[in-house]
Structures are given as structure tokens and as C-alpha cells.
Amino acid sequence: MPMKPLMTSVMAGGLALMMAIPAQARDFRLGLITPPPHRWTQAAEAFAEDVKQKSGGEHSIAVFPSQQLGNEAQMVQQLQTGALDMAFLTVAEISNRVPDFGALYAPYLVDNIDQAAALLKSDAAIELLDQLPAEAGLVGVGYGMAGLRQVMSRDQLESPADLEGKKLRITPFEPIRDFYMATGAAPTPMPLPAVYDALANGQIDAIDMDFDSILIFKFYERSDKMLISNHMMFPMVGVVSGRIWKDLSAEDRELLQTSMRTQLDAVIDHFQALEKEQEMELRGLDITIHEATKEDFADAIAEWETIWSEKAKSLPSLRKAAAEIKGS
Ligand code: 3HB
Which Pfam families match (predicted)? Predict the structure, then answer.
């Protein structure tokens, strides 16, 4: 009877599968680079609390802020092997792996924070997430964001021309490196938690940063010249390890997805609501402020465009979505 052993192994396999499926208590881990006072970390904590409650205490999520589990590149590796379950990642690291995401960093893709929020909720942006399972082994649940990018410096910063030769801290990713190279600055990649000390000890002259973090981490104490440029948006993405995702029940997937999306949307709302207020707060401090527009960066933008129109094929569809938002 040649069929018998086969049936037996299929049945045994089926049984093993059935035993794996019933709602199992899970202790998930979520990593992120932002320290506890940052809104992203608070959203991660709220997500953990919500999942605990909605699963009737069955699932827990331990949140590891301040790159306790490593920098974003290391966390992505852990997510790929299944050693880490979830993360809130800057799209910066994602764009290092999937260059198409670089399109989200086109200089002046959006003019203000409301447009950034709307663009991240557009089909064009959401469709990008479909690439993540195959290209990076991650399931992209949705976007969050931080504020638009500004520049702060220890020395004179009246216009983009003053960036020439400055050692300027950037988040480690290529689209922003290419932008600042084109301005004549010397971009220095450095993760957020290292920035304050690097400014204090003179390792860097200037930083690329958002209003919110400038205020939370008091970077103005160490760099009191600000160029309000609003040159780039700064999306974040909430992800689950593809390896972990494939073994989750439909019910657990739904729970994680819904709860994480709610928190990510709240992060977008938060930055959208506070951007103007934060700008006003900074304008009220004892710092020197100048402004720069898209026109002031025209040459750098043209150079960026020649590099990234080749690398990021989604650039036209995102531009189209942004144009629709601007026109509406
Ligand atoms: C950054 O400047 O690298 C950064 C800023 C944020 C959140 C995460 C990273 O507000």
C-alpha cells in the first residue's frame, strides 16, 4: 500500500499545523530608535497597551526604544530572520534597501506638513508598501511621520550658500546625502540618539532635523542658527517581520494591523497639528532664524533629480499625487 505512509505524513503535518494555529499567547518585541519622549515611542507604547487589552491580556508587546536592539540597519536584519517581531522605522533605512522609497524624499515634494500627511495617505504612497515583503522581508502596515526637515548650525546660516563645507549631520540614508552633497556641504551620517553629543563636542557643525526633535532634545542649546527650509518630509513606517507574519492567525494579523494603523495615524495627526506651534515656540527662543525656499535650493534640487529620477521609479506617481493634493 504505497499511499499509506504519504497520507500519514500529510495528516501528521496537518495536525501539527492545527496545533500551531489556535490563538497562542505571544510575547512580541518592537524596536525603534527614538528615545522615550519622542512621539513615535509614545505611539509604540500605546500600541502595546491596546494590543494587550484587545487580546484580553493574551498578547504582550515589549517596546525597545533608543536603539536598544541596535540601529535601524541591524533591526531590519533581525526582522528578516524573525529575531525581532516589529519595528517603527524611518523610511530612511527602508530607502537604503528599496530605492523606490527614495522618491518620498524628493526635495520639496510637498510644500507643508498638511500636504505631507495627505501624501502619506494617498494610494501612490500606500502602494509602495506592497514592495516590502519581496524586497525586504517586511510587512509594511502603514506610515507615520515626523515634521518637515530644517537645518540648524553653530555658525552663520543665512542661506543655503552657507552650507558650503559644513560638516552637517544627516540621518543615514542616500537621498538626503545626495541632496546635501549637491549643496556643497559635507554630510555626516549619524543616528538621532548620537546628535546632541556630536554637536556639543564639535564633531559636527550643523544638523538636519525636524522642529519637534529640535525642541525635545534641545539641539538649539548647541546650535543657535536655524534655516527654516521645510525641504523634505520625513515618513516613518510601521513594520512586522515577514517571517513572524506568515505564522500569525488571521485574527492576530487583523488585531495588530488595526491597532498599529490607529497609532500611526495618530502620529501623523500629532505632527500635523503641532508643526506651526513648534515653529512659533522656536521663533520665541534666543536663536537666529533665516528662511530658505525651493528657489534658493534650485541647483541642488536639479542635481538630486538627475540621480533619483533614475533610481526611484515611483517619483512620477508620487509627484502626480502631490500635485493633486496641492491643487485640491
Ligand atoms: C532623525 O533626524 O534621524 C530622526 C528624527 C525624528 C525621528 C527619527 C529620526 O524625529
Answer: DctP
